[in-house]
Amino acid sequence: MRYRPKLGLEMEMVVVDAATGASLPVQSYFDSLLAIKLARGQACESVLIDQRCVGVYTPLAECGLDNGFNLLETAIAPVAGGKGGLDRLAAVTYQELADTQQALKVDGACVLNASQHPACSRDQDWYESVCVPRPIYNELRGHRGWHHWEGIDAKAQNGANTSVPVTQAVQALNVAIALAPASIALFANSPLESGVSTGYKENRMTLWSRVFGPARFPGDLFLSTYPARAFYDLADFFQWMFGSGTVTRGLPIDSSHDYKAAPVVILDGAPSLIEFLQSRQWPGRRADTGQSVSLQPHAHHVEYSQIGQFLDARLRYRLDQLPALEEILVAWGQDGGLESLFDAHGAQTYIEARAPGAVFADAVLLEDAGIDVARSVLLSPSALQAGLLANLDDAWRLVTDYGWQTLGSLRLPAMRAGMDDPRVKALCAEVVAVAKAGLDKSEGNWLAYPEYVLASGRSAADRQLDTWMSASGNQAQKLIAVQARHVALHPAQFGAMPDQMHVL
């Protein structure tokens, strides 16, 4: 089959009280959103947990929640990439943002331009009151010992999803991981936590060491730590993610792509996924009922387990037809064997970016930078990744010129200082240039925001911190000031609604 590029986006949104800026769990939002979409004539499917609506799915997007009722997550369905792809993605994305903003009014809420709420609690009472009651969290908190509550203050990302041919997937993953410091710095937007300046421009990225550091299995922290070297091929990547020193997550009894709600089996003895796949069957217990079962390994367990790492980028894959498990294990032992096997079975592979913080156009950006920059913000992480992966040879050359370990060492300075670190700023300039060369000339406008950050030396984190520090009064008063200046603008305020863009 001829490869056809696609683009998607996972948009996470910090929900706040429209009057006070306090973190706010939604109540009637999904019912309101459903009504808005039905009135437009869209086909809709409601998603329920414990008889409560927690999602509205349409052919264009899956509108749901991340870990808490105070953090919305809208996953845009893939659109055709190539020339005009970013315009097509923007049209759907800005319509979804507009729908969300309208629906939130029923709860007296709005979206804050932040990649982490600046003054939200993370204590046990708050966690229990806002955490989405998904079965997977029982496994992660109870069995694996993750400190899941560390992320309950609405830590949000702007997750660009860019398809790649399976033969280029690992090189694309290497590029996305190695050059992630640029995305961290350019889209930094979380200088505050629990009402205190953190000393980071993108404090959100400190999350993983806090979640996994105390975990039961050291491999969980390992799978969120910058790798010692680039990956050679899919087999090498799978060996890192599923091999010795790692412990498989709960595995579904039946084939499923529902990573957060499918009933799973916790295997006895904490094996790696490879150990399990090489067995005839393995004893365990159902996470939902505690019932003892014996699970037989299957190829769908390989597909299901792809989310088991927390680097700054993920390689995601879906196969049109699953090969036999025996075929996967044989191909795993051959150089490039998994690429050939996956390609033969219609693999759709894409890179999921996790480094860019959630950044939206707000009144301060519109005033400082103008309408063109404001219009580009939400799509600019997608434009950056799409350009890099379309210009993969030059992007890889940039990685090798800097060196894998050197780029890894820039990750912490990017989180802390962003544009204030000259090494990070120089990397950002080169990354933006390589990305722009990979885009069609008609789509260079979608890089206006990172170009503005480079020129001004100031990210959204700097603007948020300025507002917080200059506001007088107590924490509540400072939060009101942040809400007043940094609420996400409706797309119509900067000419970004679909009917204005002429692309739907």
Note down, in words, how this protein is organized.
This protein is α+β, with helices and mostly antiparallel strands. Helices cover 42% and strands 16% of the residues. It has 24 helices and 15 strands. It has helices spanning 29-39, 85-104, 124-130, 135-143, 169-178, 180-186, 207-212, 218-222, 234-242, 273-277, 299-304, 325-332, 337-344, 363-369, 371-376, 380-390, 392-402, 404-409, 411-416, 422-438, 448-456, 460-470, 475-486, 498-501, and strands spanning 6-17, 45-49, 52-57, 61-65, 71-80, 109-112, 158-164, 192-193, 196-197, 251-252, 264-267, 282-286, 292-295, 313-318, 348-353. Strands 1, 2, 3, 4, 5, 6, 7, 14 and 15 form a nine-stranded antiparallel β-sheet that branches. The protein has a four-stranded antiparallel β-sheet with strand order 10-11-12-13, with no helix packed on it. Strands 8-9 form a two-stranded antiparallel ribbon. A hairpin with a 5-residue loop joins strand 12 and strand 13. The protein starts with 5 loop residues before the first strand and ends with a helix. Mean pLDDT is 95; it is low at 500-504.
Q: Which structural class matches the secondary elements?
A: alpha+beta
Query: Strand percentage, roughly?
Result: 15-25%
Largest sheet: 9 strands, antiparallel
Approximate helicity band: 40-55%
The average pLDDT is: 95
Regions with little confidence, pLDDT below 50 for 5+ residues: 500-504
Number of helices: 24
Tally the beta strands.
15
How far from one another are the termini? 27 Å
- The radius of gyration computed from the alpha-carbon positions, rounded to a whole number of angstroms, is 22 Å
Shape: globular
